[in-house]
Amino acid sequence: MAEPIRVLHVDDEAEFAELAATYLERYDEDIAVETASSAEEGLDRIETERFDCVISDYDMPGTNGIEFLRAVRDDRPDLPFVLYTGKGSEEVASEAIAAGASDYLQKDTGTEQYELLANRVRNTVDRHRADRRAAESARIRRLVSAINAALVRATSREAAERRVCETVVDTDPYALAWIRGPDPDDHTVRAVAGGDGDRAGDDAAIADREPGARALDRREVVVDDDIAAGEAIPWRETALERGYRGAAAIPLEHEETLFGALVVYADRPNAFDPEERELLAELGDNVAHAIHSFDVRDRLHDERDRRQALFENAPSPVVEGDIRRGGDDHRIADVNRAFEETFGMAAEELVGSDIDDVIVPEDDEVHPEFRERVAEGEAIIREVERSTADGRRLFIASVIPRGVRDGRADGWYAWYIDITERRERERAIESLHDVTAALLEATTAESVAEIVVDAVRRILDLPYTGVHLHDPEAGGLVPAAWTDETEAVIGTPPTFSVDEGRAGECYRAGEPRVYEEITESPGPYNPDTPIESEILVPLGDHGMLLVGSPERDAFGEVDLSLARLLAGHATAVLHRIERERVLEQLQSRTRSLMAADDADSIADIAVETASEVLGADLSGVHLTCDDGRRLELATSADSVAEEFDELPGYDRDDEDDLTGEVVWDAFDSGEARIIHDVRDRSRLAEQTPSRSVIIHPLGDHGVFIVSSIEPNAFDETDAAFVEIVAASVTAALDRVAREEELRERNERLDEFASLVSHDLRNPLDIVQGRITLAREETENDHLDHAERALDRAMSLLEESLSFARSGHTEAALERVDLATAAAESWTNVATGEATLSVEVDRTVRADPNKLKQLFENLFGNAVRHGGDAVRVAVEGLADGFAVVDDGPGFAEADRDLVFDAGYTTADDGTGFGMYIVGQIAEAHGWRVAVADADDGARIEVTGDGLAGVPGGGAGQGRSKRSDERRSSENEQ
Question: Whole-structure pTM over 0.85, yes or no?
Answer without folding.
Answer: no
